[in-house]
Amino acid sequence: MSMSFTNEKNGAVMFQFPGSKKVYVEGSRPDIRVPMREIMLSETKTEVKVEANSPVRVYDTSGPYTDPDVTVDIAKGLPPLRSKWIQERGDVEEYEGREMKPEDNGFKSNHDPRADRHIFPGLKRKPLRAKKGTNVTQLHYAKKGIVTPEMEFIAIRENMKPEFVRDEVASGRAIIPANINHPEAEPMIIGRNFHVKINANIGNSAVTSSIEEEVEKMTWATRWGADTIMDLSTGKNIHTTREWIIRNSPVPIGTVPIYQALEKVNGVAEDLTWEVYRDTLLEQAEQGVDYFTIHAGVLLRYVPLTANRVTGIVSRGGSIMAQWCLYHHKENFLYTHFEEICDIMKTYDIAFSLGDGLRPGSIADANDQAQFAELETLGELTKIAWKHDVQVMVEGPGHVPMHLIKENMDRQMEACQEAPFYTLGPLTTDIAPGYDHITSAIGAAMIGWYGTSMLCYVTPKEHLGLPNKDDVREGVITYKIAAHAADLAKGHPGAQLRDDALSKARFEFRWEDQFNLSLDPERAMEYHDETLPADAAKTAHFCSMCGPKFCSMRISHDIRKYAEKNNLNTQEAFEKGMQEKAAEFQRAGSSIYQ
Amino acid sequence: MSMSFTNEKNGAVMFQFPGSKKVYVEGSRPDIRVPMREIMLSETKTEVKVEANSPVRVYDTSGPYTDPDVTVDIAKGLPPLRSKWIQERGDVEEYEGREMKPEDNGFKSNHDPRADRHIFPGLKRKPLRAKKGTNVTQLHYAKKGIVTPEMEFIAIRENMKPEFVRDEVASGRAIIPANINHPEAEPMIIGRNFHVKINANIGNSAVTSSIEEEVEKMTWATRWGADTIMDLSTGKNIHTTREWIIRNSPVPIGTVPIYQALEKVNGVAEDLTWEVYRDTLLEQAEQGVDYFTIHAGVLLRYVPLTANRVTGIVSRGGSIMAQWCLYHHKENFLYTHFEEICDIMKTYDIAFSLGDGLRPGSIADANDQAQFAELETLGELTKIAWKHDVQVMVEGPGHVPMHLIKENMDRQMEACQEAPFYTLGPLTTDIAPGYDHITSAIGAAMIGWYGTSMLCYVTPKEHLGLPNKDDVREGVITYKIAAHAADLAKGHPGAQLRDDALSKARFEFRWEDQFNLSLDPERAMEYHDETLPADAAKTAHFCSMCGPKFCSMRISHDIRKYAEKNNLNTQEAFEKGMQEKAAEFQRAGSSIYQ
Lengths: 594, 594
Fold this sequence. Notes:
alpha/beta, eight-stranded parallel beta barrel, 21 helices, three-stranded antiparallel beta sheet, thiamine biosynthesis (chains A, B), homodimer
């Protein structure tokens, strides 16, 4: 397998964004280089003036793929930008690591004909771990008052002070998912006092999809703006697929380790053991997974609470654990071994994403006893993780009608003491399969406004099939909309700059600027060109909606021009001048709409 | 031009919905026949029982096009179902009506080569008007305590009592747009104590589109669920296009008469006169337009308030009136002639949709002084209309960030004394052209929950071009989602039935039922089949998301089966039984996941 990314046409679109350039903002040391996308704008030209418009810098998740000075060869992986920072702290050591086994990819032997031969060929670094007795989590550093390079990087990225970032991490209100074995990822933060983030799920299943497709989906998702990627693969070749994804991902990678553990016991949930699970955690920890979804809150006694639900248990991880608990009539081993899991997490700095295995799968089941009982347990587990200085976020629903959304946020804040909330949507109605990116974007925007830190995207294929590349794009853009709408509603500093710049461009008929400032410039341009394809239409002071004869936006230009020409800066002056100079306006006005 | 609709394959999809049949619920007299779509469901089959699932009846806006017993010929138009009700009230008279002029279609003579020759060929009825001294509005009847057949029809349609419908209309909280010259339309109601409605805009412009396309978009939009259609045509052949649309529309039609008036004065706003406008109102009244958007609230003194906005005035009607006011330095003639307009409205029972000509066109301009000043005037005009027993709804924004949405609803309720609110979105961010159906569905769902009665759809082409047929489908379905999410959040009786039925079908792997219950069955099926096309997959107890080996939904079935078999109906019994019968569950459970 070989894919290399340059800025040549790559399929349908250029990898780099039109009218934009990649810039890096340097921090206190030369190896802190924070990538941003700078969108160049053309001038504002009126009859009375020509004014430059400052370029707009936007948050950039796309990694080196959009840097024209870098050619990424996915067979080699991305440069390990954090390696030096990790090493210089002096608290990690290289070690031999776990030996890869055939069952890591779902086979009995390495000679199984179905085994994917595309083992990642790039430089195989030995894994790192915390030295005995040390703790390498960003939470641990933050609590000790240390501002790490990761925190400074994030401060620049979010336009905040480094000390503020440290404090948010120290308090548990934010996390920096950053496994020491994933030095390729650009540091990012998840917390409600920062930009709302979005996650994109990818991953093959037993039915469909190849490694190559999954790597492509990852690069594609981060190009459009995914802040983290979850690899939810469930079929064969899980280990190898993940290796390719991590080595090439500029964003943190999350997984649900129980999926792979289940493959190792041939899909028989009751055959799962703590040992198989623990081995899987180590395997993935050494590869560099940045956060693990762990369904440790699905307690034996909560399972009966789901018996009368309309849709029972819909979380895959939740149902695996419920099956195990019922079969053995024992407490969930993720719960009983939770402190041992914490020990692993802090050895690599992997963050918990405490899974909501009992989330509602339908409007009818929203905010029920099972869901909130589990949430209380997740709050209890948050405290245990914090005792170990392990970073934690908490997963949330699911399917929830609008009027019940806020209760989810409020209860989570209370039960989990402000640990970041990470929700799947929620979907605000069940009746639109094929459009669940939309049913859920409504809920996602709202819960983001109420305080959720990261929104897990939903694609148009939800409930129907696995997303392809186009679905990934649709899902990511839809969730960028929800996240940005939430940032605006929260009054996040600077969020509105982009809206204002785009609206100003729209008002001034700077079509190219309008496209380039949008979340999906290619789509905007394509839709515009469908009706008015001529290049001249890109500078036209009208559009296909009204046509050239009367444009609703132009009257405002005349009003403004009139005010400018006559120096009518205040409303009072305007009204007075308007009266006095009605005749002049008549002459000016009548010449315009011909 | 000739299009006839049967239930043969019509382009990509059947006109009728799969798994559904058209039913009519009869009222107190045989000519009150309320159409509904009945979705048939298959049986629930478990190891221990087979149970029928009741069919689900849903609100149906599609008109005779989905009735297999009717073949619609659009050259003849739909049957005039309300004619008898209108006539038997004894307060209307036929008259000769206004003679059609070449300028009604934008030409100087009938021999202009650009004139569309497709004059509507169907039976030309003479127009009706109220007899001198009478008032034929539904509001007038409601205030007199009369329950009209229209009200009874609506009561059945909405599952409410006729007297409740009458009372809501009498109080002004709801309107029934029902021009006596549009007897083809099936009565519907717009008010916050009923289902939230959606409007779809269609219409050609000077740049693009034909009559045939517009009629097709109308039938297409109502098939997917549009409750009303606005014809916003602005180019040539406006009169003829509208005639075809009205004669074939099963839902009320709205227009913005100033658009056509402007065409009659060759696009020069300052040449508009009350006489040209009045003539246009009469022309459209006789054709059967059910509601008029009238920008009577754009007062001369408000125009300067827009001078410093980021996007000025974005409403086409608003900017036309602003242009007129400034040029003449006179008050808006729609405001000064408002009572004369009321006289026309009550002669035909046309409802006001008081236009928000100063709505914000960007996040930056949301909830500003100009917007709320105009709203106060719309409140004043509402009272004047009510004095004449003319029905009124009030239009709202536009672009509004989430945290400012509720203020719009609260202020409108207060200023306009609970007259129905009809909003365009609102869009919750400006940065996603190409996806504004989504940026606005977020705002639309929220404002619908807060009390807005009708949501004007936004298509993916908003800001970029005119919607084609696919954009209409995408826009309508997106707004059905927003409206339904709002109904759920408001706790509208019965709204959740469809969600529950679909979720139950999903849980029981009744794939066909799941598709048929969804807002867009074709899309759902198409997406499902993309990954698992085999017919067998329609009955499979798994899907492509997890594959056949482990399905997260199945554990819940085992739990339920276990409870059923052992008669464990309460949670207590379940927990006790679970403990006692662990061994039995082990045997049952272990046989399932092979």
